[in-house]
Amino acid sequence: MSPESFAQVSNLVIPTATVIYALAMMAHALEWAMSRAVAVEQADDTEAAPVLVGAAGASTGSTVTSGAGASSTGSASDVTASPRAEAAGRVGLLLTYLAFVLHLAGVLTRGLAAERAPWGNMYEFTISTSLAVTAVYLLFVHRYKLQWLGLGVTLVVAAVLGLATLALYTPAGPLVPALHSYWLVIHVAAAAISGGAFTIGGLASILYLVKSRAERKVLAGGTMPASLRRLPTAEAMDGTAYKVLAFAFPLWTFGVLVAGPIWAEYAWGRYWGWDPKEVWSLVTWVVYAAYLHARATAGWRGSRAATIAIVGWVVFIFNFVGVNLLVSGLHSYAGV
């Protein structure tokens, strides 16, 4: 196939993947809606004996009371599950796998069309980073049973891909001379993968704050909103966020603060120049370093750690979108 043919395939496959991600999001939304309906029907039983649910697994149906035991895996409880809700969840996950395969094909054919690594501009970096978000999610679904993040992940990826397709699209073409370096490949690949993990950690931290508040309400004698009963314990989600961010931080450190300056020296003749992108990449690193340091030395857990993780994700998003689109700098033309 010619580069033009690969470009046509990519231009077709990426929007198709966007639509399928949106369908997966709808399936996960339906899953939660059905779970909520079942929880309302079970309200009398659950209010009589409120339980803070951990990771049970459909095969055992067991629960835990303080986020201990099986909850460390971060999987959702089946206390409010119903056959229809479980079916909707499976459909959502299968659609996510299908969208991921098409998304991957779109990124690969974009690279073949441009005859280079597919991250030479903002459009390419956006589709590659959103691919990394899904890849990290599916990896952790397999390892830690994180299906409960499906709604948030598909919402974010569908929105990002839609933005890329409608507002950021750039025809495939050659790189500017400054981008011809294998250090660029290392730099951007590491940034994209760690950015995907930052997104998963940010979503888990947001849900942690929501669930922990509901658990405190239960302990005070109140009831937990039905829509939250399908989530794991807050403690399990806190542990999930930590695992993901502990994986991402060293990758960001190497890819952005080591490989990035080496590429900058090749491209611009200096390792560090306080370009806006470099500054915000360093700020991102500092926030996540503070998160891990606070957990390791001060014993920070729970809401304080989750707040830092969310701040780090917001800083990363600004670095990813705001700096590229709103601030003029050496990285502006590259989109990386």
UniProtKB/TrEMBL annotation:
Ranges for domain Cytochrome c assembly protein: 119-331
Alphabetized InterPro entries for the sequence: Cyt_c_assembly, Cyt_c_biogenesis_CcsA, Cyt_c_biogenesis_CcsA/CcmC
Molecular function via GO: heme binding
Protein name per the record: Cytochrome c-type biogenesis protein CcsB
Keywords: Cytochrome c-type biogenesis, Membrane, Transmembrane, Transmembrane helix
Gene Ontology biological process terms, A to Z: cytochrome complex assembly
Record flagged with keyword Transmembrane helix: yes
Compartmental location: Membrane
Regions that span the bilayer: 12-30, 91-113, 125-141, 148-170, 182-210, 244-264, 279-298, 305-327
Keyword Membrane belongs to the record: yes
GO cellular component, one term: plasma membrane
Region feature (Disordered): 58-79
Membrane topology: Multi-pass membrane protein
Pfam family, any one: Cytochrom_C_asm
